[in-house]
């Protein structure tokens, strides 16, 4: 069998054993190019096919440049080479015919992919055909933007509703708008309830003989905020000599506010004096605790 180098077109004589050694890969003895002898394989004339190899043809020498290609071919001499026409395949020759010729010569084992991982000459190009079908169209962005804006507006509305009292106090210009919105939503704007800005300035608990021995509680409450607040609740606890609670009561604003105080709001920076009489029958109190808080 004959093959030729695709780089320099030099013709070489090869045997099935030589091609099986490296799956058909050889090195040109003239230009040192590495090629696959099966790609340009052709059957020689009957005389050439049966004649022994001449001494001038080397069966292979090891090349350090590429350890996977150790078959170096030497060109066929002019006396050994048949005419160029003898090397040509018929006009009707196809790649399948070349493949069948190699298979008939016993070269099928030389195409094992274990020698050349991932390469198969006969399947080359089978997976590179273009995929038919149109490219996916881009989706419009505006629906996502609109949904995000609606969510932001809903979140802003919830925050404004939750802190409507603080907004009405800190930004008086927004109060008319907040009132109109609350009227539409059937809600109200409550007064702020910042207990940390409400303090007990003074307090005292005494026995009042004029009231039949009842306890008299006196205290002064102050709103230290610069804005009006809701009235807090007042909790009084009577304790014994060991500071254990013996009596506790929570008073609503209507129960401790004096008659002259505005029951609707605690004025900004305002003070109110509280005076209460507590009946403690069968209870002996040695002390008391007084707290203000919002429910």
TrEMBL record:
Residues 1-37 form the Zinc finger/thioredoxin putative domain. Transmembrane segments: none annotated. It comes from Candidatus Proximibacter danicus. This is Zinc-ribbon domain-containing protein.
């Amino acid at each position: 069998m004959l093959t030729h180098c695709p780089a320099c077109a030099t013709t070489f004589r090869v045997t099935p054993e030589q091609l099986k050694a490296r799956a058909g890969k050889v090195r040109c003895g003239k230009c040192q190019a590495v090629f696959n002898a099966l790609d340009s394989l052709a059957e020689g004339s009957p005389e050439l096919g049966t004649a022994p190899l001449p001494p001038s043809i080397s069966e292979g020498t090891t090349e350090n440049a590429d350890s996977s290609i150790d078959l170096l071919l030497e060109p066929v001499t002019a006396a050994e080479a048949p005419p160029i026409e003898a090397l040509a395949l018929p006009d009707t020759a196809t790649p399948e015919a070349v493949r069948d010729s190699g298979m008939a010569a016993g070269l099928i084992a030389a195409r094992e992919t274990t020698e050349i991982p991932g390469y198969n000459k006969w399947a080359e190009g089978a997976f590179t055909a273009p995929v038919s079908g149109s490219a996916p169209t881009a989706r419009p962005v505006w629906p996502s933007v609109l949904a995000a804006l609606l969510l932001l507006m809903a979140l802003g509305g919830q925050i404004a509703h939750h802190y409507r009292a603080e907004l009405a106090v800190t930004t008086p210009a927004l109060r008319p708008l907040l009132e109109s919105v609350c009227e539409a939503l059937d809600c109200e704007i409550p007064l702020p309830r910042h207990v940390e800005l409400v303090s007990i300035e003074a307090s005292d608990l005494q026995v009042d003989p004029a009231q039949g021995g009842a306890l008299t509680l006196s205290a002064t409450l102050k709103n230290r905020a610069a804005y009006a607040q809701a009235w807090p609740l007042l909790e009084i606890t009577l304790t014994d000599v060991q500071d254990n609670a013996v009596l506790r009561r929570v008073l609503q604003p209507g129960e401790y506010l004096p008659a002259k105080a505005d029951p609707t709001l605690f004025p900004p920076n305002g003070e109110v004096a509280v005076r209460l009489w507590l009946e403690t029958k069968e209870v002996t109190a040695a002390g008391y605790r007084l707290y203000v808080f919002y429910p």
